[in-house]
From TrEMBL:
<dbReference type="InterPro" id="IPR001162">
    <property type="entry name" value="UvrC_RNase_H_dom"/>
</dbReference>
<dbReference type="InterPro" id="IPR036876">
    <property type="entry name" value="UVR_dom_sf"/>
</dbReference>
<dbReference type="InterPro" id="IPR003583">
    <property type="entry name" value="Hlx-hairpin-Hlx_DNA-bd_motif"/>
</dbReference>
<dbReference type="InterPro" id="IPR047296">
    <property type="entry name" value="GIY-YIG_UvrC_Cho"/>
</dbReference>
<keyword id="KW-0228">DNA excision</keyword>
<comment type="function">
    <text>The UvrABC repair system catalyzes the recognition and processing of DNA lesions. UvrC both incises the 5' and 3' sides of the lesion. The N-terminal half is responsible for the 3' incision and the C-terminal half is responsible for the 5' incision.</text>
</comment>
<dbReference type="InterPro" id="IPR035901">
    <property type="entry name" value="GIY-YIG_endonuc_sf"/>
</dbReference>
<dbReference type="InterPro" id="IPR038476">
    <property type="entry name" value="UvrC_RNase_H_dom_sf"/>
</dbReference>
<dbReference type="Pfam" id="PF01541">
    <property type="entry name" value="GIY-YIG"/>
</dbReference>
<dbReference type="InterPro" id="IPR010994">
    <property type="entry name" value="RuvA_2-like"/>
</dbReference>
<keyword id="KW-0963">Cytoplasm</keyword>
<dbReference type="InterPro" id="IPR050066">
    <property type="entry name" value="UvrABC_protein_C"/>
</dbReference>
<keyword id="KW-0227">DNA damage</keyword>
<feature type="domain" description="UvrC family homology region profile">
    <location>
        <begin position="289"/>
        <end position="477"/>
    </location>
</feature>
<keyword id="KW-0742">SOS response</keyword>
<protein>
    <recommendedName>
        <fullName>UvrABC system protein C</fullName>
    </recommendedName>
</protein>
<comment type="subunit">
    <text>Interacts with UvrB in an incision complex.</text>
</comment>
Length: 601
């Protein structure tokens, strides 16, 4: 494996060799990772055929400042390396599997008389992990089977040989009801325990045939010794294992070890079903959603999903069945599109799952959209608004006795917070605690800015407060000449009363109404945003006042420190060298002496 760097103009110098290419922007952020059978042809295609590319691809190419490549031996190696890089960095232009679940595993511990238990945390030194399992139910079914077949201990005792020999333990209820053979008191030797555990591992790997052979041999040996009761117990366990296999069986048991991966896609999204099949039994079934980033083909989407899912579920399948024929096969990746027989039935089953998942997602999306539309339509009706309020802005002030006065504005689009549109305000023109004048200032500044930038005005303005704050906001809109162009209301917190400009009496919306809950949520978010900002400003100002009390440190020096270190905590943690770079050695020494005297204050 060999790595090299290029600038975009050097792309023609790239080798005609398999590998991975990485695109970096001017800030040296990794924005895209790709794999190629020929790096020269693939990377050149981004720059030579740009006119036929979609908007996102053209935007990405404009951002590229540097290209880094890594040579590998084959296209499959490139796929695996690409997957690892995307999983680690998650560049913004790469396809990401939409899946926020943490999957369960079964762990066989590394200790005397190992235990088996479920976990979601992977700590390799603890033992051997099996999974992940696509659902907790599937994991519990396997675990229950193992506990019925074998007497694996469930206690967490330290069963070191010397502790067992010293007789430190007594048997528990699990021993008396037959779920444990009492290794803690020496009733079961570790060699016999480990033989059972080895068969449990085969079951966890999906190799039920090995475990069935084991029980058949045990049954025959007991029968030959005329120990018919023990032989009967082995027969019961064999029956239990066969019943479990019959439930899991979906096809011919002669189909030994393969994966099935099918894909259905629309313009923006692809839906993938992935199945692991061992000896005719489905041991894993997983659906994932992929959002297209750069107008990727179905072939690219399928390969991306397959590689990541095989990695996630630790597949060692020799063959993968799919519904999409690759234009150029990838050496080392055995993909086939069966047309008839049991393998074709597996494709049809997987496609049925993928199509159902697509339908389910569309239905859920439709329900969520209907709910959002319903709430803002209800709000329009409750407030008699001329338009649907799909753009709402809410203002709130925050100060304590006039100190560090600040304000906030939050924005909700289609009933959801648009955090990027939130704004903080320092109150600049008002002296002392005057909420009304402060409200007038921030409303005026906000909409003066929107008018200058020719941006759309909101469909509803909400003022956190009663008639006084509302009147001040109205004055600001009147002076800007936009009063009447957008509805404005005030919401008083005590009784959740809604005030309109010019009306002496408020209106009340049903307390259980979804529209009132939306207004409350918007108001509470504005209040939270203002309070958080006020605390931050107050903290900086308080420390800044303390700083200016130190000989040789004035307001400009205090401001430099805050601007450079970003927080009070970092100023307090800074050493002499770091402080000297900002304010010089003498002032830095004074600050350190002051910090030492006031330690713990």
């Amino acid at each position: 494996m060999q790595s090299s760097s290029y600038v975009p103009s050097d792309h023609l110098q790239l080798p005609d060799h398999p590998g991975v290419y990485k695109y970096f922007n001017a800030e040296n952020d990794l924005i895209y990772v790709g794999k190629a059978k020929s790096l020269k042809k693939r990377v050149s295609s981004y720059f030579n055929k740009l006119s036929g590319s979609n908007l996102k691809t053209r935007r990405m190419v404009k951002e590229i400042a540097r290209i880094e490549i890594t040579l590998v031996n084959s296209e499959l190696d490139a796929l695996l390396l690409e997957n690892n890089l995307i999983k680690k960095v998650q560049p913004k232009y790469n396809i990401l599997l939409r899946d926020d679940k943490t999957y369960p595993y079964l762990l066989i511990t590394k200790e005397n008389f190992p235990r088996i238990f479920p976990t979601r945390k992977l700590i390799p030194k603890r033992g051997t992990y099996f999974g992940p399992f696509a659902s907790v139910k599937a994991m519990n079914n396997v675990l229950d089977l193992i506990r019925e077949l074998f007497t694996i201990r469930t206690c967490n005792l330290d069963l070191s040989p010397y502790k067992i020999d010293e007789g430190k333990y007594k048997v528990c209820l699990e021993y008396h009801i037959g779920n444990c053979q009492g290794p803690c008191v020496g009733h079961q030797r570790e060699a016999a325990y480990l033989r059972d555990l080895e068969q449990a591992k085969h079951i966890l790997k999906g190799n039920l045939g090995v475990a069935k052979t084991y029980f058949k041999q045990e049954m025959q040996e007991y029968a030959e010794k005329l120990e018919f009761e023990k032989a009967h117990r082995m027969k019961e366990k064999l029956d239990l294992l066969e019943k479990y296999q019959a439930k899991s069986m979906i096809t011919n048991p002669g189909i030994a070890n393969l994966d099935v991966c099918t894909l259905v896609a629309d313009e923006k999204t692809a839906y993938v079903n992935y199945m692991r099949v061992i000896n005719g039994a489905m041991i894993t079934s997983k659906n994932v959603e992929l959002k297209k980033k750069l107008d990727e083909s179905e072939e690219e989407l399928l390969i991306t999903a397959l590689i990541r899912l095989q990695d996630q579920f630790q597949s060692d399948a020799a063959e993968t069945l799919t519904n999409i024929q690759l234009e150029s096969p990838i050496e080392g990746l055995n993909l086939s599109v069966p047309k008839i027989g049991d393998k074709r039935k597996l494709i049809e089953l997987s496609l049925k799952n993928a199509l159902y998942y697509k339908k389910e997602k569309a239905l859920l999306q439709g329900l969520n959209q209907d709910k959002k539309d319903r709430v803002i339509r209800q709000l329009q009706q409750d407030l008699s608004l001329p338009e649907i309020p799909d753009h709402i802005e809410c203002f709130d002030n925050s100060n304590i006795m006039g100190t560090s006065p600040v304000a906030s504005m939050v924005c909700f689009l289609n009933g959801k917070p648009a955090v990027k549109e939130y704004r903080h305000f320092h109150i600049k023109t008002v002296e002392g605690p005057n909420d009304f004048a402060s409200m007038k200032e921030i409303v005026s500044r906000r909409y003066k800015r929107l008018l200058e930038e020719e941006k759309p005005l909101p469909k509803l303005v909400v003022i956190d407060g009663g008639k006084g704050q509302l009147s001040s906001a109205v004055e600001a809109l009147q002076e800007l000449g936009v009063y009447g162009k957008m509805p404005i209301i005030g919401i008083a917190k005590r009784l959740e009363e809604i005030y309109f400009p010019g009306d002496s009496y408020p209106i009340h919306i049903d307390k259980k109404s979804e529209s009132l809950k939306l207004l409350q949520r918007i108001r509470d978010e504005a209040h939270r945003f203002a309070i958080t900002f006020h605390r931050k400003v107050r903290s900086k100002n308080a420390f800044g006042t303390q700083l200016t009390a130190i000989p040789g440190i004035g307001e400009n020096t205090a401001e430099k420190l805050l601007k450079h270190f970003k927080s009070v905590k970092k100023i307090k943690e800074a050493n002499l060298e770091e402080l000297s770079e900002v304010i010089g050695t003498n002032r830095a020494q004074s600050l350190l002496e002051w910090k030492e005297k006031n330690k713990g204050a």
